[in-house]
Amino acid sequence: MKIMVTGRHGQVGWELLRSLAPLGQVIACDRRDLDLSRPESLRAVVERLQPDVVVNAAAYTMVDKAEQEEELATTVNGAAAGALAEAARDAGALFVHYSTDYVFDGSKEGAYLESDATNPLNAYGRSKLAGEQAVRAAGGDWLVLRTSWVYGARGKNFLRTMLRLAAERDALNVVADQFGAPTSARTIADVTAHVISRALAERRTGAFESGIFHLTASGVTSWHGFASHIIDAARTALPVGAIAVQSVKPIPAADYPTPARRPVNSALDNTRLEQRFGVCRPSWQDAARCVLDEALEQMGAQQLSR
Predict the structure, then answer these.
(1) Which of 28, 285, 302, 306 meets the CB 3.0–4.6 Å disulfide criterion with 8?
(2) pTM here?
(3) Are residues 59 and 8 in contact, defined by beta-carbon separation less than 8 angstroms?
(4) Active-site residue, from 60, 124, 151, 256
(5) Extents of the domains making up the chain
(6) Which secondary structure element, helix H or strand E, spans residue 183, and what is its range?
(7) Which UniProt keywords apply (predicted)?
(8) pLDDT digit string (tens) for 64-123?
(9) What share of the chain in percent tops pLDDT 70?
(10) Contact present, 288 and 225 (Cβ < 8 Å)
């Protein structure tokens, strides 16, 4: 079996190379192979590779910059997703695509269901919603996995930023009135591999149904809660003096304005994913511990090399 993965150098794409390897031959593509800003060029790549599964982990992810580049974000996250879905459909392949909590406006009090009305607050959310709609319109066999607050031991993300700032500053101010489930790229990749295995079995028996599913770690915290967890772990694991920060102050989002508005509530209900595919999700704390072990090992090595 051949599995085509886009975004090989991204946080999720990188982890997928490991998680999907037991299922078959993984063909990893980067921007040199696939230019998602040119959706018309994507079909030829899928036709040449003839994969059994296409996993689209590539995306425009610069949330604030998307406010000025909404057309490009929508091309990459919307039109390109649709083009890949159409090509996968015509190749008879299962298509797996990632979306985001930002398709919701965050006004709901409880966790969002897949069936809840979407209403993105920012350009990035609108571009990802366009991708969901394009994948659905393409037809074929597809799965859209919505996730939230993605981080990993590599790339640009909240966890790595907090570790860097904690080593440089005496105090940090972190937003405490936005809530969600920090979800590691490793968790997303591992669950994706499990879901694909189950979905392929369903296809063989004719029981497969396309759909949107929420995929996050379990539990909910604030950005401040996540930052505090990261810094506590770093202070325990690293040599004395490696962490400079003495206080992590909770602040309202209004005190930290950004070009793109963020939802207050990003909690996603995963019941549908669990029931359909038999998924057992880790808590956000347990998942973070695995990533922190790797990130702190890197950080400690850097400290020793100075």
Answers:
(1) 28
(2) 0.93
(3) no
(4) 124
(5) 2-155+182-217+265-281
(6) strand 183-184
(7) NADP, Oxidoreductase
(8) 999 999 999 999 999 999 999 999 999 999 999 999 999 999 999 999 999 999 999 999
(9) 97
(10) no
67-169-150 Cα angle (round to 5): 40
Query: What DSSP string runs through 225-280?
Result: HHHHHHHHHHHHHSPTTS----EEEEE-GGGS--SS---SB--B--HHHHHHH---
DSSP tag of 159: H
Using the 8-state DSSP alphabet, how is residue 112 labeled? Answer: B
Element (H, E) at 103: none
Q: Decide: helix, strand or coil at residue 109.
A: coil
The residue type found at 289 is R
Question: Encoding tokens for residue 251?
Answer: 């602040």
Residue 30 and residue 9 in contact, taking contact as beta carbons nearer than 8 Å = yes
Decide: 94 and 143 in contact? Cβ < 8 Å: yes
Who contacts 80 (Cβ-Cβ below 8 Å, separation ≥6)?
A: 36, 37, 39, 42, 58, 131
pLDDT digits (tens, 9 = 90+) for 145-185: 999 999 998 888 999 999 999 888 989 999 999 999 999 99
**How many residues in the chain?**
306
